[in-house]
Design a protein that fits this description.
Layout: H1 2-33, E1 36-40, E2 43-44, H2 45-56, E3 59-61, H3 64-67, E4 71-72, E5 75-79, H4 81-92, E6 95-99, E7 103-107, H5 137-142, H6 144-147
Helix pairs in contact: 2-4
């Protein structure tokens, strides 16, 4: 009898936690779809992204050096968080790397690398080879330039 109660309690707790999690996820999804009145003045891109964060309630992480010297036009009107974010990312040249509905991480587009780029921006393989060099052990004990490194 006691065992049956414990099992029933566990099942009830699991059901309640599952329902609460579902409600939180649904709330986050609805918040993304709901229209918000944005009033972001024409200004430098960093300040505009910070204003977007304050007005939308979504944390925005972005590289400040990538938006340095860039300006964006005013963003005013009713729109979803995603629509406003799309306008700002187009204006700044940043890309959304991650968006979980509460925090958005923006990155600068990747440019060429030492390994070389493909046409689609993928990095090709870079092969590095090395060879072990043999040393003259007697030189190590006599030469000053090698003694300093040891």
């Amino acid at each position: 009898m006691k065992r049956d109660r414990q099992i029933a309690r566990r099942r009830l707790k699991t059901a309640l936690l599952g329902g609460a999690a579902a409600m939180l996820m649904a709330g986050a999804a609805m918040a993304q779809d709901a229209s918000i009145r944005f009033d972001i003045a024409a200004q430098d891109a960093g300040s505009a992204l910070n204003d977007f964060s304050r007005q939308s309630g979504v944390r925005v992480l972005f590289p400040y050096d990538a938006v340095a010297g860039k300006r964006v036009q005013a963003l005013r009107g009713d729109m979803t968080v995603q629509q406003a974010l799309d306008v700002l990312t187009r204006a700044t040249g940043l890309q959304v790397a991650q968006n979980d509905g509460q925090t958005v991480t923006l990155t600068a587009p990747q440019s060429g690398s030492a390994a070389g780029d493909g046409a689609d921006g993928t990095v090709q393989a870079l092969v590095v080879t090395a060879q072990k060099r043999e040393e003259n052990r007697t030189c190590r004990s006599r030469c000053r330039h090698l003694r300093r490194k040891i």
